[in-house]
Amino acid sequence: MRKIWIAAALLLGLATGCQRELPATLESEAEPEIPIITVTRWSEKTELFLEYPSLAAGRTSRFAIHLTDLATFRPLTTGQATVELRRDGTAGEQFRAESPSRPGIFGVDVVPRQAGTYTMSIRVLSGELEDVHILESVTVSAGSEPAALPEEEAEEGISFLKEQQWTLDFRTEKVAEQSLRESIQVHGEVRPRTGGEAEVVAPFGGRLAATASSPTIGTTVEEGQVLAALIPKTSSPSERAALEFAVAEAEAELSLARKNAQRLGRLLEAGAVPARRLDEARTRVTMLEAKRKAAQARLAQLESWQRADGAPGDNSPFLLRAPISGIVAEAHATVGANVEQGQNLFRIVSLHPVHVFAAVPEANAPQLRSLSGAEIEVPGMETLFSPSRLISVGRIVDPVSRTLNVIYEVQNPAKLLAVGQAVSLRLFTSKRVQAPAVPESAVVDDGGRPVVFVQTSGEFFVRRPVRLGVREAGYVHVLEGLEAGERVVTLGAYLVRLAALSTQIPVHGHVH
Fold first, then answer.
1. CA nearest 336: which of 232, 227, 231, 208?
2. Which of 35, 49, 233, 241 is most deeply packed, by most CB within 10 A?
3. What are the φ and ψ backbone dihedral angles of 22, each rounded to 5 degrees?
4. Tens of pLDDT, residues 99-139
5. Residue 350 and residue 354: Cα distance in Å, rounded?
């Protein structure tokens, strides 16, 4: 709402501030009023909006040439504009402005030498942009003859000046006939793809230990990433004395075995024993070292289990890893907590790709035989999502909702679609319809009725109620209210509507 009020204030400021100077020929009350002619032309490159006093031989007419670059809908700020008058194939008269007097507006003084009917062309050269607009049957009268008012002078509608259009976000488009597919509008829901949801459970009972990164709900994880560490339960957690005795016994045996190996080594050097005896002694030392290590590990496991903070101690715990990449949807793992075998610790959901389930009323079941594609609309987003492939078309009607499921796979690398999100789907059939079409952004809700704003000339627009048809790829068929070839506002239509509601009448200038 704040944005609309700001736009309205800007429109009012532009309307009251856009005072255009009148030509010298209009400043004197003693001279007769000279009609002002307006002309609007569009090419593939530029829009020409031309204002000039009617032409008379020997009289200076100040041309205001408004030029808009149709690639950006911004005014031309550099270059030159040339007015050329030609008749009967003879060399024409040329009048040129070497630069715009104001952004987008070139002022040119035109002084025809002789009366008659001319072909007038407006040529523009601005950087790499070169264009020409040709006006047929332009009349130059004798100085004493009254000039007839041309058709383009009778303009009515909503005034929206070029200075306003160039300052605001504004764009128009020519209405053209397009072939769009018939469609069914249904509701749907985003769900995880098959294999895109996984639960991580405890493989055995134990205590959860701290890890470098303990993910929480909403955390993005990669396949193979460590989620938690689990310290297994000891078989006899109350027999600490027995475990300590086992460690002490293993260390004592190891000490005796090392001394025996050293003694046999000295005897072997003296030739008193064979080498086999020393090899057997060294083997026993290795076995007793392993026995001591195992006893120490069992004792360390008991100490880790009894530690309240869940620190893993010296012995490496069992690591739980993410089976898929995705988002942590549920997390029930608390560091230091005891868990039982099979207890659910994490639920991970993949967001790329996802499946979209469309609920199609059973009355539309026959149309599902000719599906040719779909578009997905998300509330609050202008982006349309296109499915990557059709997964399945349901053949079983839900007894409660009386609908069938159509499932599409949608790529979601930016994760704009959320699992569980309600969406709207447009399911296309193979049947096509040809009719005038406009971008959906051109349609404005005006009191509950769809309307568009048609540009009748450079600075005038009319409100046109329309009846809409099928939609596809951001375009909608207009069944009534528009004809192919007309130009409609596709960006900034609500600004034109604000201008129509404003009680302030913009000053409509003539020549600059």
1. 208
2. 49
3. -85, 150
4. 999 999 999 999 999 898 999 999 999 999 999 999 988 99
5. 7
Residue 260: per-residue pLDDT: 86
Q: What is the pLDDT of residue 16?
A: 46
pLDDT in tens, 344-363: 999 999 999 999 999 999 99
Give the strand pairing for 326-331 and 371-377. Answer: unpaired
Cα–Cα distance for residue pair 209/338, rounded to 1 Å: 10
Strand, helix or coil at 403?
Answer: strand
3-state class percentages of the chain: helix first, strand second, coil last, to nearest 5: 20, 40, 35
Identify the CATH class of 240-306. mainly alpha
Alpha carbon of residue 62 to chain centroid = 46
Whether the CA torsion 361, 362, 363, 369 is positive or negative: it is positive
Q: Does domain 173-191+353-491 have CATH number 3.30.1330.10?
A: no
| Global confidence as pTM | 0.70
- The residue ranges of every structural domain in the chain are 32-154, 173-191+353-491, 240-306
The partner residues of 460 in beta bridges, in order of sequence, read 159, 457
From 424, 362, 369, select the one nearest 393 (Cα to Cα).
369
Question: Looking at this protein, which amino acid is placed at residue 270?
Answer: A
Pairing between β-strand 129-141 and β-strand 55-56 as defined by DSSP bridges:
parallel
- The residue written with tokens 């079983």 in the block is 396
d(C-alpha 65, C-alpha 50), whole Å = 5
CATH for 32-154 is 2.60.40.1930
